[in-house]
Amino acid sequence: MINAGGLVLKRWEPAWAAALVEVVRASLPELNRFMPWAHQGYGVEDADAFLTTSASDWERGTAFNYAVFTAIGELVGAASLMTRMGPGVLEIGYWIHSAHTGQGYATAAARTLASLARSLPGVDRVALRHDAANAGSAAVAGKAGFVEVDRFARSVEAPGESGVAVLREWR
Ligand SMILES: CC(C)(COP(=O)(O)OP(=O)(O)OC[C@H]1O[C@@H](n2cnc3c(N)ncnc32)[C@H](O)[C@@H]1OP(=O)(O)O)[C@@H](O)C(=O)NCCC(=O)NCCS
C-alpha cells in the first residue's frame, strides 16, 4: 500500500473485479481512445483476466499494478510500474475514472510511483510512454516531472493514437 497525497494505491485484489468493470465501463469513451484493452464490451471476464495476470506478474516481478483509491475508499483508477523496458528501468502507467478527472489524481499517482521506483535498488531510470496525440497524458507526465527524451514510430493500437510514441524520463 502506498500513500500518494490524498490517494491510496493498493495492490489489486480479485474481489475488486466488479468495481473495476463499473469504473472501466463508466470511463470507456476516454479510455478507449488510448488503451487497447478498453473495448466496448469490457466485462467481468476481462477484469478477472487482468487481475489474474496482475497477480502472476507481481509474483514474477514483471509488473506491479495498483488500484487507486481516494481517502474515503472510492476506486478512481489504476497505476502501474512495469519492467518491460528492460533491466534498470521501471515504466509507469495510469488511467483515471472519467468522473474523477481534473483533480490531480493521475499526477499524484505518477509522481509518487516515480519517486518510489527511483529509490529502489537497481533502478537507474523511471520512464513513461504515451502517444503524441494523448494531450492529457502529456500534461500529466510533464506536471509529474517527466521530460521528453525521444519520439519514435509505433503501430496504432487504439482509435485515438497517432502512431508516434513519446518517451519520457523522470528527472
Ligand atoms: C489523462 C488522464 C490520466 C488524466 O488524469 P487526471 O487525474 O485528470 O489528471 P490530472 O488531474 O493529474 O491533470 C494534470 C494536468 O493535466 C491536464 N489534463 C488532464 N487531462 C487533460 C486532457 N485530456 N487534455 C489536456 N490537458 C489535460 C490537467 O488540466 C492538469 O493540468 P493543470 O493542473 O495545469 O490544469 C485521464 O484523463 C485518463 O485516464 N485518460 C485516459 C487513459 C490514458 O490516456 N492514460 C494514459 C495512457 S499513457
TrEMBL record:
Keyword Protease attached: no
UniProt GO molecular function: protein N-terminal-serine acetyltransferase activity; protein-N-terminal-alanine acetyltransferase activity
Keyword DNA damage: no
Pfam families: Acetyltransf_3
PROSITE patterns per UniProt: GNAT
Protein keywords: Transferase
One GO CC term on file: cytoplasm
Domain called N-acetyltransferase: residue spans: 21-171
Cross-referenced InterPro entries: Acyl_CoA_acyltransferase, GNAT_dom, Ribosomal_N-acetyltransferase
Protein name from the UniProt record: Protein N-acetyltransferase, RimJ/RimL family
Species lineage: Bacteria, Bacillati, Actinomycetota, Actinomycetes, Micromonosporales
